[in-house]
Structures are given as structure tokens and as C-alpha cells.
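assembly run, all chains below
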Amino acid sequence: MLARVQASFDRQAMMTTLGVEVIAVEPGRVEMSLRHNDRFTQQHGFLHAGAVASVLDTACGYAAYSVMPPESAVLTATYTINLLAPAAGERFTITGEVVRSGRTLVVCRGEAFADGDERPFAVMQATMTTLVNRPGISG
Amino acid sequence: MLARVQASFDRQAMMTTLGVEVIAVEPGRVEMSLRHNDRFTQQHGFLHAGAVASVLDTACGYAAYSVMPPESAVLTATYTINLLAPAAGERFTITGEVVRSGRTLVVCRGEAFADGDERPFAVMQATMTTLVNRPGISG
Amino acid sequence: MLARVQASFDRQAMMTTLGVEVIAVEPGRVEMSLRHNDRFTQQHGFLHAGAVASVLDTACGYAAYSVMPPESAVLTATYTINLLAPAAGERFTITGEVVRSGRTLVVCRGEAFADGDERPFAVMQATMTTLVNRPGISG
Amino acid sequence: MLARVQASFDRQAMMTTLGVEVIAVEPGRVEMSLRHNDRFTQQHGFLHAGAVASVLDTACGYAAYSVMPPESAVLTATYTINLLAPAAGERFTITGEVVRSGRTLVVCRGEAFADGDERPFAVMQATMTTLVNRPGISG
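ok done. output:
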């Protein structure tokens, strides 16, 4: 399972471009990290919400994928993100975990933390879809 | 107003990095465009939802900003994105428009279209906050 | 199709209890109405967001159901509601319409209007699931 | 604070109509309970999502209110609810808790449990607004 997650993650060019690292993967939970980068900021100099959302989405997606049957692929159906404070910091820890998985939908929650802060600066509630037997779509 | 939006947009390094262009700005409505780029893809080779969400968020943000008092700054409080189909195509048109603006919150809707498709492949419902008189925060 | 929607609606005791009426049903779009009722208010005397959300959810659900195959059942997977102003008024018009329907998920948007106001006081973005061949579940 | 929450709750006719009880209130966390009632069902005989959403919304609202200054009033700006399974059961426990509170917005998470189930059948991510000094609006 870990190998499947890592292999799929490695194919996400967006994650490479953002410089995201996979920190931990266990069944139903994924942790990633992201560093501040001036190329991905918004107008006030903080990391753009879109960069944070990309990683939260990916963390939730792989948390869901980690509990899906091996032959599945995962797609994001929808998510809601709340930005509780600006993404101010040097290093961001981003987690995704499964709340409950159903036949085709897996619901996850994600949290983003700046540096050593114990309170998240962003939270996500995401709905992932399990795809099975779609030609050309895997991972 | 147009100058304020463009000036703030130009300070979003994330938009430059993604190669986003402002196509049109009018009070309460903003249109942007984005091209497919292999550096921002997900594991199936389509544009990552995070790239699409970043531009939808920015389009909604500036739609809101365009109806705020000149001395305000805009921040995203929360948004929900639905991904209706993969971001398959060469050129994406992304719109944001104000549904209703209140004292501190402005609610917007965004839509993303691939190439000439008239049906959106992604839709957003976003809540923007008006910041007034926050030292160091403008635009 | 109209008969299927009406038959399913008639089985929703919640709609009878709230006094909701179906005003119009066409493929992909449903309109309902709701009256102010002191039994369903929040602490400031306005209609409770939960009453409005119930009807928006149902309107979106039947908009989705109206484009599903006849043997399907519809369930709400997730929705986001924005409350743009209090539900102040006597009679509320609530619409749901399909944005795009996929293999198992149908995404809808809903709007709620008070009396003659042309601006919605609440908007919803909803994701409906198509259920097929689930014993004991229809409509 | 407990008295303020209870007093405001008692003014929500919707909660009386649904038969909701306040089980516990502490700073930043509220727990409520709701019983199955045939008057509030959807078309398959389960409790309508709108009834569950109403109580989740109220639980999140009072969790937020419990950490606001005494002279504030609370309004729901937006929430996202995921329905992970039908509301099947006799007695439902519904919790709301504050994730983080800012100057005017308080973000909360809610969970709904059926009977003795330890996994939630519904989860909410909600954004509450603090109102200060609005004539005629308190609680």
C-alpha cells in the first residue's frame, strides 16, 4: 500500500513543483510537508491558499487511496477548505485522514500547521471517489 | 478599481508561476485564463485540482475585491470546490462573480471551463472577508 | 418523471411537517416554496437555517433525481450552504438545478429567495449520489 | 456562559419542535441529542438530513457562541455537511466544537452519531460570524 501511494504521489508533477515531501503514510492517514516558497505566494506575501489547498487535497486523497482496494484509482469529488489564519511560516505540516469510507465515496479531514503551532491554520473536509476499472486511469 | 485589482494580482507570485492571465474585470466579476502545464499535473496527467482551485479562488477573491471600499484588503475565509470532470484541455477559462456582498463577508461563485466547453468542469462557492485598516495588509 | 419526483417528495414527512410545496419540476430543475412558521425559527425570530437548508437540499436532490435513470434512488452526499442574510420574510422560493451529472454523482446549485427579493438570501452547492439496485431503497 | 447558551437555545423554536436537548456545554464545545421522529423523515424513512444539519448547525453555533464576548450574537455564515451514512437509529448524539476563533469568524467542526456507534454518520465544517452591537440582535 505504501508503495502504491508513493508511486502515485511521484506521478503528481504538481507536488514536485511545490516541493512537497511525504512524511508518513499509514492506513487511513497521510502526513506531508511543504516549505514557504516565494514563487507560490499571494498578494500579502503569505503562501497562496491554493498551494496549501493542493497539498491538503493530495494528503486527503492518499489517505482515502490507502484504504481503497488495490485496483482502484482516486479522484477528488469536492472539498471545503477553511483558512483560519494566513499561511505564515517556513515549514508547513499537512495531514489527511479518513473519517469514514463507503462503497464509492471516502470522506476525509485535513489539517495544515505552520512551524511548531499546535492549532491548524487551515482545515479541509473532502469527499474522494473510488474509480474502478476505468481504462487509462490508475493510482 | 481595475488598477487596484491588477496591482494586487501582479503581487500574487502564485499567479505568475501558474501563468495565469487576467482577461476581464468588471464590478463584481472577474475572468482569468490558465494553460495546461505539465509541471502542475496530478497522477493521471490532468491539471491538478489545486492549480484550478488556486485560480478559481483568486478570481472569486478579486470579484469580491472589486466591490469593496478602496481601502480594503481581501482574504479568503472558506470555499467549496466541486470537480465535475478532470481538467482535460489546453486552455482553461475561469470566472468569479459576486453573489451578494455583506458588511464584512462577500459570497462569490466561480466556474472553470476547458477549451470551448460550455459546461463547467469545476465550480466554487467562496466566502471572502473584507479587511479594513490592518497594518501591513492591503490589496 | 414528474410523477416519480412527486411520489418521492410525498414520502418526505419532513417536507409535509415544514409545509413545503412543489411549485415546478422540469428536467434538471425544481422549484419549491416554504412559508414562515414560528415553530421553525432560530433565536432571533428568523426562520432557522436548518429549515431553509432542508428545502434547498430537497430541491437539489429532486433536480438531480429528475435526470437520473428511472430505477435510481437519490441520496445527498454533501452540500455547502452560504447564508447571505437572515431568512426574513413571509414566503420563500427555493430552487435547485443540476450543474452537471456524472456516472454516480450529480452536482447541483440551489438558491433561496425571500418574498419578492431578486437576490438570494441563501445559496447551496450540493453533491448527490445515484443509488441503483439497493434493496429497499427507491425514490 | 452556560446560562447565555441555554437562554439563546431556548429561544430557538426549531430546536423545541425537533425535540432537541442540550446535553453538555463547555467553553468551545457543545453536545446535543435528538430522537428519531417520523415527522422529520426523508423518502426512505430515515431522519431527513435537514433535521440532522439543523442540530449540527446549532451545536456548532453555540460552541462558537460559548467563546465569544458576552455582548455578542452568533450567526451562521456557511457550513459544509457530509452525510456518510443514512441517519438510521433511535437516538442521535450531536457535537459541535471550535477549531479556531478569529476576530469576527469562528470555525467549528460538528459530528453526529447514531445510538452507540463510535463512527459519525455525518460531519460538518462550519463558519460562524460574531455580531456585535446590532440593534435587536442578541444571543
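The mean pLDDT of chain B is 95.

The first strand of chain B starts at residue 21 and ends at 26.

not gonna interpret more than that til we talk
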